[in-house]
Amino acid sequence: MSASSHLPLRDDVRSLGRILGDTIRAQAGHAVYERVERVRALAKGFRAGERADFQALDRELSSLPPGDALPVARAFAHFLQLANIAEQHHRVRRRREYLRNPDLPPQRASFEDSFAALRNAGVSGDELHDLVSRLEIELVLTAHPTEVIRRTLLRKYRSIADTLALRDRPDLTDPERAELEETLSREVLAIWETDEIRHERPTPADEARFGFAVIEQTLWQTVPRFLRALDRSLIRHTGRGLGAEAAPIRFASWMGGDRDGNPNVTPAVTEEVCLLARWMAADLLAREIERLRADLSMHDASDELRDVVGDAREPYRELLRGVRNRLRETRLGLETRLERPAYAVTSDLTTEDVVETLRLCDRSLRATGDGHLADGRLTDVRRLVACFGLGLVRLDLRQESSRHTDALDEITKHLRYGSYASWDENARIRFLEEGLRGELPELPPRFTPSEPVRDVLDTLRVAARQPADSLGAYVISMARVPSDVLGVSFLQKFCGVKRPLRVVPLFETVSDLHGAGESLDRLLSVPAYRDGIGDRQEVMIGYSDSAKDGGRLAAAWELYRAQERVVETCARHGVRVTLFHGRGGTVGRGGGPISLAIRSQPPGSVDGRIRVTEQGEMIHAKFGLPGIAERTLELYTTSAVEASLARRKPVPTEWREAMDRMAEASRRLYRTHVEDPDFLEYFRTVTPLQELGSLNIGSRPARRRAEGGLESLRAIPWIFAWTQTRLMTPSWLGVGEGLAAELDAGREDLLREMARDWPFFRSTLDLIEMVLAKASPELAAHYEQRLVPENLHAIGEDLRGRLDRTRSRVQRVLGHDGLLDGNPVLRRSIDVRNPYVDPINVVQVECLRRLRAESSEELRLALLVTINGVAAGMRNTG
Predict the structure, then answer these.
(1) How far apart are the first and last CA of the chain?
(2) Which residues, 6 or more positions from 457, have their beta carbon under 8 angstroms from its beta carbon?
(3) Is the dihedral of CA 377, 382, 388, 392 positive or negative?
(4) Is the dihedral of CA 658, 663, 666, 672 positive or negative?
(5) Beta strand pairing call for 394-400 and 249-253
(6) DSSP E strands: which ranges in 258-415?
(7) Could you give the residue numbers annotated as active site?
(8) Do 655 and 663 meet the contact criterion of CB atoms below 8 Å apart?
(9) pLDDT tens digits for 537-579?
């Protein structure tokens, strides 16, 4: 699109900025407003190259008492949030313009663009239709501590976005336009007057409610529209539409099930979250069935339907009344159970019951010549049931592998079999296979496990009580060997889980990824295990810990090779594999544009099946607005289809060898830094890591263990803390040295060829380029100057030098004169935001400096506002 197409965005940003300015003047006073304007002018001057303006900016902000600095930080933080809202709305507006204007080419990666390209490339209509019909894309909503925005504010942001959409109407009258302006003013005022700090840490159930709210407020309405659009495109390009019960995309959750290192996720919490999900599903479906009853008022019906309802005057309404009433009874029973845990829910309504009733309606309508009615709301409801069922989302359980080893050890000791923990891998596999094949001994009543083991066993007993569509997978973090998987299968049987959860090993560290293929090969060679899984195996790969372990470049290559090995191993065993990608929001944790990520996967690794985590703030960013949510689902679909059907050539040996060399050079440099005690001390002092614990942004502790160094720190605060300083170190450290290994050896042409023709390498460089464009070494140096002991300053100087060299090497390989030459929209977005983020960073530095000298609640609150503000400016946190 042309530059003029972005003028409405600029108008929206200016309008919201003006309203915010008026609000600040009215609520905080003219002096605060003038100070904000003065700070903004200095920040813009600094970004225009005036170094003296930064010094003036520092003097202006560092001399302010906390009470005066706080409204300044809030002003810039709120502006950035409003700019985010405007940008999200503009994405929806641009999508609508593509759909409305037949003279424009299809939007990139839309159904029309993707399907047409595939057909032109020789993919047959049958091949395309068959692939779309068997798609299994599951998006797993997780609650890692990265969502810094309160739900109260998210609702107000949604209201502003809705108002901006109404303001775009071309037929607005002057009074209507004035009313919308008043609505925007009131919402901005409400935001300014709302406390943006979360003063209590959310519980896992609170996090689950947030995820369910996104389904209720956005996805429930979006999924049928998305599927109708997919259906229309399929008909145009293949001659056949989508089935009425097709669910190419489903949703799962970790909220309330992910107990790895989170003591707040207990068996009782898991059961509560399952009940909450079932309650919401029953509530939403009851409302949907009531709307359907209103539509299906006709008298004529098939004999099949009449056999069920008799001579009812309105047979469809009579039939659906029974389903609606049973849904209401289910909802009431679940409400009672949530209030009184001892209450037994007696509803026997199943998802299949609802499905069969809706199928009967469909058959009757078509038999009586009313097929067009069947294609309306009835089809939408059938697709909602196929997508969400009566469980809403399937809850995954996750636990760390050593916890299962401890449980098995206590069991075998109590049964006088010996110490499971002391056995070698062969002995463990023999014991577990015998248990899976035969009858298991019962533990005597006097068995009293330790609390950690009781938690493992009670969790599985909770799982045994859940309906079939409430639970999904059991994910084992830090999985390394076959017994890690077999042990969970054994424990499920031991605890009476009649419908066992599929067991999913999660390979996270670089060494674990390297051994994933071998471990899986041995696992699939165990007959008792193979008999239990049939021909399906799911494997999860972790982007966060692998990058924290080996650096972004080495981790990316090891992840790629691990997928290849897993796919090859499963193919050799005749097993269909689903790869589960544990991605975060930031580049350092595997984040980035959806289409870029999926299309860059190894050939054969998708094949119509993929699971992906959507974490923290990315849930709101991708699914918070209906238009954005629909586009997100479209991108997942087209990317998975293209990755499955793309006819790619094998990766040349010389490219692989180059990646091997670059990954090793990158990893070596990265490990040299993170293993240096001085580097870790620099990290602790230059970033707000120590203060993040008071932010209350998630139920999970920042560390897996209270003691230990970098290895015990979770990847999220590792990334989050560096992002606040604007140095973004984990996302690029080692990349420059990896590229230099090839450039200095005279292989620049080879690297440019790889960047041009290899989606994996190109996407890796594109993502790193984006991070480098967001980095601000000048701000990072300011943190160092004010917060870090002088004896550690050489570390910061070294990092900033490496950042500069990495920038030049990435540009050289990509053939760019400047960062993001190929993405001017993102370049402009970063440039526009920088003058608004910079003042927040300066205030943050001063808050950190003073807080580390004296405790102050006022300073703590000011710091938390700056952390929120920087996260808003960077568009992601961890």
Answers:
(1) 32
(2) 407, 449, 491, 495
(3) positive
(4) negative
(5) parallel
(6) 394-400
(7) 144, 548
(8) no
(9) 999 998 877 788 889 999 999 999 999 999 999 999 999 999 9
